[in-house]
TrEMBL record, chains A, B:
Record's keyword terms, sorted: Cytoplasm, Methyltransferase, rRNA processing, S-adenosyl-L-methionine, Transferase
Family the UniProt entry places it in: Belongs to the RNA methyltransferase RsmE family.
Name of one Pfam family that matches: Methyltrans_RNA
Origin organism lineage: Bacteria, Bacillati, Bacillota, Bacilli, Lactobacillales
Native source species: Streptococcus oricebi
Localization per Swiss-Prot or TrEMBL: Cytoplasm
The protein's Enzyme Commission number: 2.1.1.193
Biological function: Specifically methylates the N3 position of the uracil ring of uridine 1498 (m3U1498) in 16S rRNA. Acts on the fully assembled 30S ribosomal subunit.
Ranges of residues in domain Ribosomal RNA small subunit methyltransferase E methyltransferase: 70-240
Protein name from the UniProt record: Ribosomal RNA small subunit methyltransferase E
Superkingdom, taxonomy of origin: Bacteria
Gene3D superfamilies with a match to the protein in the record: 3.40.1280.10
């Protein structure tokens, strides 16, 4: 069933205001009175709703569903600004794979230089991509997008996390394979993880040192060398395997 | 160091013949006599080589390296024909993530209809993408691409594998989380796995039944609904975590 995110607290009846959402509901899906959809408000709970009045864009909430598909850890992905539209790609795929937030920062070896205006425009585009991917993958939350103009602002936020991991190509090359598993297995449900990825050229030795001085740990992502836009997908999949598949008693 | 795949058995000196490879070596990288690269012949062993004669495109092999970055399981990805250029995307990313072979087949709910001519052209394009991704990710092997015109030909190959897994959205929705881990953990190094993925609309119930009758098992890929092009990346990452990170004593 089609799912839509609606800003604000849950209320019934609710009038949908967002233009893109309305367009999809009534022009693409062509909802009629009585048709049902899932509405997800700020609390992340999915609620079955039906169209009360299609002219007034009004829905009645019918019942709360109990499915919660969020990763047990709150994982923030932070990519050094990559070239072209790779952040668009990362935003879509990281959302599908359960990222809690998606950040990017100007890394030493980032080739692109994005000013404030460009970053605002880009963040707006990425937010829309994350919204679409969150609806499609049936997430309870839409990942927040934050693009840092200054690396110092990014660095000042590392202390907000229970664990900071840095994907490091040299770890992969050195055959380092245990750190990721060990650190992730130590974390408990609800804890916050920041996972940092370099741009195409990787992270500079100075950056690695800065991150380590701020408490971060470098980890390998298996033996193969992954592109900058592929590494976050491996990392999120790995966290899902370790925290959702290996620990579950559901099935 | 730059890596190139060279067809044929290892020999020294070796004359490189492939035009695209030569162009990259001498026009892009501008190799000079004495410069070193990695050459990988049909046996998958990486060999350090140096330019003997740049006019004659001749290299001398110096030594064998012992790094072997292939997944311990031989994983073949088989996607129901997806729309647009998603197979290009899957070929690049699945190669980075260690796929042994990349297949695609006309699934019941595939929207695209590709005839023999189109499939030959597409396979050629995908092979080039896989080659580039294999070099970039430092693979020992280039995944073979095979696009099936007839589903029956695809089905007749299921018996070649030690294990056939089917990514099934309904498994994810039902909260099924253990089958993937259980099946992958049972497999031993060198065994062959076929991992089947549906197109955008998913696999039809009839297809699922056919696969199951041929010995396949449906598995979930975590609780979130993944797009057709994202599911193979999760699956390969999961196999890497289970077979490379969790079992290793290297680090």
């Amino acid at each position: 069933m089609q799912q839509y995110f609606i800003k604000g607290p849950a209320q019934s009846p609710v009038t949908v205001e967002d233009k893109d959402t309305l367009k999809h509901m009534f022009s693409v899906l062509r909802l009629l009175e009585g048709d049902q959809v899932l509405l997800v408000f700020d609390d992340g709970i999915k609620r079955l709703a039906r169209v009360l009045d299609r002219e007034a864009h009004q829905f009645e909430l019918l019942e709360e569903l109990d499915d919660w598909l969020e990763l047990p850890l709150q994982v923030t992905i932070a990519s050094g600004f990559p070239k072209g539209d790779k952040l668009e790609f990362i935003s879509q795929k990281a959302t599908e794979l359960g990222a809690h937030k998606i950040w990017a920062f100007p890394a030493d070896w980032s080739v692109v230089k994005w000013d404030r205006k460009k970053l605002l425009k880009k963040a707006d585009k990425l937010s829309k991509i994350a919204l679409g991917a969150a609806e499609q993958s049936k997430r309870n939350l839409i990942p927040e997008i934050e693009l840092f103009e200054q690396k110092t602002d990014f660095l000042s936020r590392l202390g907000d996390f229970d664990c900071v991991l840095v994907a490091y190509e040299e770890s992969a090359k050195a055959g380092e394979t245990k750190s990721l598993v060990q650190r992730v297995q130590q974390l408990e449900a609800g804890q916050k993880v920041l996972f940092i990825f370099g741009p195409e050229g990787g992270l500079s030795p100075a950056e690695i040192e800065t991150f380590e001085n701020l408490g971060a740990q470098t980890v390998g992502l298996g033996p193969r060398i992954l592109r900058t836009e592929t590494a976050p997908l491996y990392a999120l999949s790995a966290i899902s395997v370790l925290k959702e598949l290996l620990v579950s008693d559901k099935a």
